[in-house]
Design goal:
The strands form six sheets. Strands 13, 15, 16, 18, 19, 21, 22, 24, 26, 29 and 32 form an eleven-stranded parallel sheet that branches. A ten-stranded parallel sheet has the order 12-14-17-20-23-25-27-30-33-35, covered by helices on one side. It has two domains: 228 residues, Spore Coat Polysaccharide Biosynthesis Protein SpsA, Chain A; 192 residues, Hexapeptide repeat proteins (UDP N-Acetylglucosamine Acyltransferase, domain 1). It has 464 residues and is of the alpha/beta class. It is elongated, with a radius of gyration of 31 Å. It has nine helices and 35 strands.
Length: 464
């Protein structure tokens, strides 16, 4: 689609309908709180609205959805106490938008992929942009409906367009055979002039099979009042609504395919793209190499020229240019991996900074710590950062060398250039350039091993 300038002169508010419980999800979690790429689906919707500077935003929730209210903050929420249909739900936002002058966009919290470009075209249509389907020439439409042409129209409501624009929306169960032959369908998303929206919603009745107040009825009411309605078409993929776990999985797959393409188009190499999973906010630089079966949780920034060798799990972390991570590394929130630093196999980093050139290459846990530039952490090293009550800090200086199997009992500091012997348990600070050892002196008992084997063999033969 070509870019279309939005009707930016007209302020636009939004109502996000999110009161559905999602019974088909079989979950105590509100439907719109189920995550796609680590982000609740409603927050995908809110991010798109924020990018288009659509504000204020009012979210319609059901009672006892405190978690949802917190997730959408600082946006205002209003409660739909009785679920009486989409028209009734939208009407709950009336007081919250009192005094607002402009247009009101009504969207759904379980339709997370509606793109910014589509919203721009809807806003342009409200300004009577030419070439918009169903927009009668020379007449500014009061209501703009987002439609689409699905592969299988099935149970979708049909958009009936005539010479003077969109005439009505017909639910599939109420449609005639001719109307069912119409392939242009209703997405449910609408943009309406604010000053008439509330009167249209107030006129919606519930004389239908379900006894509900349907948002779609405002089109017919607007036409009866002599107003014009128009249609903007979107793609079926962006209008995927999510009502079940299977549809949630389908949405996740769609997001991942699109994001992988975006990352590769930005200059990164994915060795096995179909095995790499991103979060909605993952940032990946140029000339980055990502190995197979790598998972990015929320809050990850990967700078240019980073190598991630695969089978890694990374969340809440920053990887500076030239860093090398993996394979089989786990970076937890607060991990800050410096330039050209190395994190190797079966290493876990949490709330710790590795400065430039530092190396933690094997089988180690580093938590609540600072590892100085060019320091080397030996295999099996552990920062014992938790005493059962408090987390405390370990500081390892520039150029320090930590021997294999060292336990650093925090709070403790190892000075610049200092060393620890293999197997050391470090409970007090180590001065710069010192060596910390606390294991017993080695003794060699000559011939012991040979005598031991001889005794054991004789005992075994005797017991046969």
């Amino acid at each position: 689609m070509t870019s279309t300038s939005s009707n930016s002169a007209v302020p636009t508010a939004a109502i996000v309908l999110a009161a559905g419980t999602g019974s088909r999800m079989k979950s105590d979690l509100p439907k719109v709180m189920h995550a796609i790429a680590g982000r609740p689906m409603i927050n995908h919707v809110l991010a798109t609205l924020a990018g288009e500077k659509i504000a204020p935003v009012v979210v319609v929730v059901a009672a006892e959805m405190d978690g949802l209210t917190q997730a959408v903050a600082p946006h205002q929420t209003v409660v739909q106490k009785d679920r009486l249909g989409t028209g009734h739900a939208a009407l709950q936002a009336k007081d919250a938008l009192a005094g607002f002058s402009g247009d009101v966009l009504i969207v759904f919290g379980d339709t997370p992929f509606v793109g910014a470009e589509t919203l721009r075209r809807m806003r342009a249509a409200r300004g009577n942009a030419s070439g918009v389907r169903g927009n009668a020439a020379g007449v500014k439409p009061t209501v703009v409906v987002l439609g689409f042409t699905p592969r299988d129209p099935g149970a979708y409501g049909r958009l009936i367009v005539g010479a003077k624009g969109l005439e009505r929306i017909v639910e599939a169960k109420d449609a005639t055979a001719d109307e069912l032959g119409v392939r242009l369908c209703n997405s449910g998303i609408m943009l309406c002039e604010a000053k008439v929206l509330w009167s249209l919603l107030a006129g919606v009745g519930n004389a239908n099979a379900k006894g509900e107040y349907y948002l779609t009825d405002i089109v017919g009411l607007a036409r009866k009042a002599g107003q014009t309605c128009a249609v903007v078409e979107g793609d079926e993929a962006e209008l995927l609504g999510i009502n079940s776990r299977a549809e949630l999985a389908e949405a996740e797959a769609i997001f991942q395919r699109q994001y992988r393409q975006r990352v590769m188009a930005g200059g990164a190499t994915l060795r096995a793209p179909e095995t790499v999973y991103f979060s909605a906010d993952t940032q990946v630089g140029r000339d980055v190499e990502i190995g197979p079966f790598t998972v990015f949780g929320p809050g990850v920034v990967v700078d240019d020229n980073v190598i991630i060798k695969g089978f890694c799990h990374i969340e809440g972390a920053h990887l500076a240019a030239g860093a090398v991570v993996g394979p089989y590394a786990r970076l937890r929130p607060g991990a800050d991996i410096g330039r050209a630093a190395h994190v190797g196999n079966f290493v876990e980093i949490k709330n710790a900074t590795l400065e430039e050139g530092a190396k933690v290459n094997h089988l180690s846990y580093v938590g609540d710590a600072r590892i100085g530039a060019k320091a080397n952490i030996g295999a099996g090293t552990i920062t014992a950062n938790y005493d059962g009550f408090n987390k405390t800090h370990t500081d390892i200086g520039v150029g320090a060398s930590i021997g294999s199997n060292t336990v650093l009992v925090a709070p403790v500091k190892v000075g610049d250039g200092a060393m620890t012997g293999a197997g050391a348990v470090v409970r007090k600070d180590v001065p710069a350039d010192a060596l910390a050892v606390n294991t017993a002196r080695q003794e060699n008992l000559e011939g012991f091993a040979a005598n031991y084997r001889k005794q054991k063999s004789a005992s075994k033969d005797k017991n046969k």
